[in-house]
Fold tRNA N(3)-methylcytidine methyltransferase.
Amino acid sequence: MEVAEYFSKDFEWEELKAEVENDPSFRCHLLPFECSNPSSQAAAEEDSIAWKKFHIRHSSGKFFKERRYLLKEFPELVSCGECSKVLEVGCGNGSTALPILRGNEHIIVYACDCSSETLEKAEEIIDAAIVASLRHRFRTFNCDFSITGFPKWLACHTCREVFMQKPQNCLSDAKENPRTMYPLNEVGCCIGGVDFITLIFTLSAVPFQRMPTSIKECFSVIKPGGMLLFRDYGLYDMTMLRFESDQRVGFREYMRSDGTRSYFFCLDTVRDLFVGAGFIELELEYCCIKSVNRRNGKSMRRVWVHGKFQRPM
Ligand SMILES: C[S@@+](CC[C@H](N)C(=O)[O-])C[C@H]1O[C@@H](n2cnc3c(N)ncnc32)[C@H](O)[C@@H]1O
């Protein structure tokens, strides 16, 4: 059932686009937006703070929903080689990490989030869901990748440079010490980068101005030939059209009342961002799903963007 739900195209995105763009009640969403103040460090930190507060408010884990469809969309997470490394960026409570860990018992998932509260919750949820012997395959760390980038133990400067020059000879496939959180040892400079990055409903939370550097940072820690797997809100998704005009903080960018942001992507913007950072586009499309709200019986048109990008060899 889930396969049908996530793979079928219930409507054509172009038809929705035409409808929205011809409807005067949606005009406010189409207007250009003058961004007056470039983001300061303090403003940048406010975004993380809003997410931290969000996770504290929702700490019961009630909103946790395992993304069971994920491995159908990204089967390479199952078929990849032993001990492949995945970096799940903005992991929240582990909705994406959990199906990956369940689907491939050899994979190692490094998961980061700007909120330490949600990392604790994710560990709790994953501890309860997978067998103890596999627990060491899930490793969390706290970081706001859009401000500080990723830590050096993930890919040190030397490895990042080697990726640029002689990609196939990745310096470090450092032996891992299962007892330490981060698998550095006397010989290894870092873990040698990752084979996959999952960016699932996280990029839309980053201010648009900081997206290009954030994606370049992802590019720099992914091994040559590695893949970035992307899913996020698409342009004219129902949730975008529900925002009020005073919630606009940029073109196609909105702020919820709790201070968290959401950007709505068109395919060209995604392409420009990822190809601009050096990735090759493998797959990029809208997923258009009609679903019915159980409470009021209203039909909802959801739009997501699915993308697969590869770092050249
Ligand atoms: C909508 S949730 C998605 C969670 C998860 N990827 C999933 O599949 O459900 C977005 C997550 O990104 C985190 N986040 C937002 N901005 C971030 C940033 N700049 N750096 C790291 N994490 C961030 C938030 O705390 C939140 O947990």
Strands lie at 85-89, 108-113, 138-142, 194-200, 222-233, 248-250, 253-255, 261-263, 280-292, 299-310. Residues 41-57 form the longest helix (17 residues). Residues 51, 67, 90-92, 95-96, 112-115, 118, 144-146, 200-202, 205-206 surround S-adenosylmethionine (CB under 6 Å). Residues 1-5, 169-187 have pLDDT under 50 and may be disordered.
